[in-house]
Amino acid sequence: MSELTISNIVKYFDQTKALDNINVGVKENEFIAILGPSGCGKTTLLRSVAGFIEPTSGTIKFGEKVFFDNREAVPVEDRQLGMVFQHFALWPHMTTKQHLEYPLKSKQNKKRFDVAQRQEMVRHTLKLVELDGFENRYPNELSGGQKQRVALARAIVAQPKILLMDEPLSALDAHLKQTMVQEIKRIHHIMKTTILYVTHDQAEAMSLADRIIVMNKGKIEQIDTPYNLYHYPQTPFVAKFVSKAFLVEGNWEGDKFCPASAPDTTWQGAEVASYFKENKLYPVRPEELSLMTSSSTGKGLLGIVKDKQFLGRETRYMVDAVGKELEIISNSFHISEIDEKVYVTKH
Amino acid sequence: MFKFTKYFHKTLFLLIGLFVFIFPLFTLFKMSFEVDGNFSFSNFSTLFDSPRTLQAIENTLIIAFGSTLIAVSMGTVFALLVAYSNIRFKRLIELLVILPYVIPGYVVTLSWTSLFAGNSPINQFLRETGLPVVNMYSMGGITLVLGISNAAIVYLNLVDILRKIPKEQEWASKVAGYRMIETLRNVTFKMALPAVVSGIILAFLSSIDNFAIPATLGSPAGITVLSTYIYEKAIGFGPTSFNQAAVLSILLALIAFAGIALQWWILRKSVIFDSTRPDFEPRIVLLDNKRRLIQWFSILVLFLVNIVPLIVMLFSSFQSSYSPSIFGFGNMDLDNYQFILQTPSMYQGFLTSLGLAVAAILICIILSVWVMYYKLRHDKKATLPIELGASLTYSTPGIVLALSMIFYWSNVPNVYGTIRILLIAYVTRYMLILLRGSNTALLSVTIELEEAAMISGSKTIEKWHKIIIPIIKNQIFSSSFLIFTGAFTELSLSSLLIAANSKTVGLTIFNLQTGGDNSIAQAYSVILTIFIIALVLVRNHFEQKEMKKNE
Fold it and tell me: For the whole model, what pTM was predicted?
């Protein structure tokens, strides 16, 4: 098993702590997304693994190979990685084919593969990313999506054990993004390689990754599967950033929660993380809430509809309740009008 | 726009382009085929039969290739160090590289000849130890000084492009398994190739164009290159010497245009990448010891090459009579400086050049803003004759342009023989720089900005005063600065076009030098050098202030 083990990584830029004691174990062939807002340290972490940044302290190991151990660093070119960059970083003077041949012609890969093997790998990779027929095009003769495929092909052609991706889809428009997400998933499925994928887009991270590392202010907030992150956030940051949840104040009694402004209401919360229980909070997601014009049972939070947006498949209501603006996603457009009183309940 | 004004502009631009820029060059052709007013090839055959001509061509090419080699190696190495490595004192290094380029050639030669003068410490030492003394009045001397001066051209062409190459493109190569040195070769160099090629060609052109350095170093040793040969013929008295100068000029111009054509041919397919922002982060991180070694070695080399000669010149300038050692304080006085500041024929040159340069710049600014504004807003094609003409006169070697000015403007009364011909020559020579500058500047004034001004009720004058001029003034200023240092210290045009009582700075120093008044020439050069360094520092100051404002 070749696992990527990142332990106790700290990185200072002058006085600011960009990475604060990062510990991650990545399993072989796992697809890991590193998710967080800009400036959270996700790119710094990726570049530390690549070797473009030297951490201040800590260790990075891949299997038996030590990439970095307290100031001793293996140079980037000896780590045998693949990497896809944010703006493709294609070389304007090389054709698609030359891009693919380039990593294969490096010193170590020349020893690993003979000429026939290398030709076969180029052919195979071109086919994999569906670029056969575009071998002799220069980057300026390719569309955005094709450039992305060339960048991806260059990164995987030498069959690296680790593939690093730094916001690779951020330069593409929404429609292309969707196609490329499927492509990347398909290629990962065929390639079976460990992937570290940096993004600030939580939908992208959730649709791609086996597990997601959520980072904020240089620290790891939570590492978990997309499903668990969404349903069982461990920290308020994850609750807000991933689940788009609101934190409602109230009192916990065992696994039961009473919102402070509606003592008659109780919400079940066996799976809510201890942090929220200790801080008398309940994270609730927009689609968990529903609206009623009158409360038959007298339960629910009283509020006033501030805005209503018809989004097609669903309707978004913004409701002032418990001193906050709550977002509620509903299937019905006709529940109530702006400035009307409503009761917000959780189902 | 009315049809009439459209044709009016079109015709006007065509006339200016033809009569001011293009026709003067054509008179050279006419002159070269003329013997006693008749068409003939005999000027060509006479010249090419002369071994001196062939020798001059050979010298020109040897010096041009040699100096380009020096310029390219120096310029590339320092551009790479400043743009990519983590050495300190980058601003100082940059200033040192650029210094011999902004200081006029005749001053640089004077500083080098002071360094290796008969009584200089180095040659004294060499003589005592029985080694051959260094003689700057030689092919090697000319090549060296030209190479060092032109290093800045290569450097300036390259350093910004290097910073603009996205570092991810280099990272992609490192990830692919290549070391930094291989990456520089495979990726960086390939991407910077257009800039490298331009740098090489420009350095080459500048060295065949140069008149001051071969004139001051070559003439005493009997070394002739094409530019000095043309000068010699042009001031000669033979019945056909003007015509022969025309033939030589065509030859020199042909070499120059061949260089430009080569540049165009090599670069015709190159892809211009537009990474928006230059990246100032070091990409080659040297360890402390290595970094210090390289950094201080660079500063030392540049100091030896570009500062020490100037210091020696400074010391020499304090000696009004011959002294056995230039560092002998007992012989020092300020007589030379006193002489310059009290003799009208001396300080007048400074004022003449100042007036000429400022006047030429003002004319260029008005003409180029008008032309380029018309081009961008009304008619893209109408301004072509002026742009084409200005590129021709800009690429033509200075001495060739000077000669064509004589031929052409002597047909018009009250121009040749007065200071006006110099003004016209300066405008034709430097116009292109401001045309380009105005084009860049005006491109940033989008039509929406003007429309917004007009909707807000601005009249045309107000629109220019409040909107357009504030936006373009920085770019115009920096282009003007480029022209100013060139025009102020210019020698090759004024050497031929000068009128009786209107010597320029360049010619004053040149005459002192060739007349053997070396110490006065040195003193004058010191004054000029201090003036130019002060100018450069003032400009850098404003540039930095501007950069901070934009951040």
Answer: 0.84
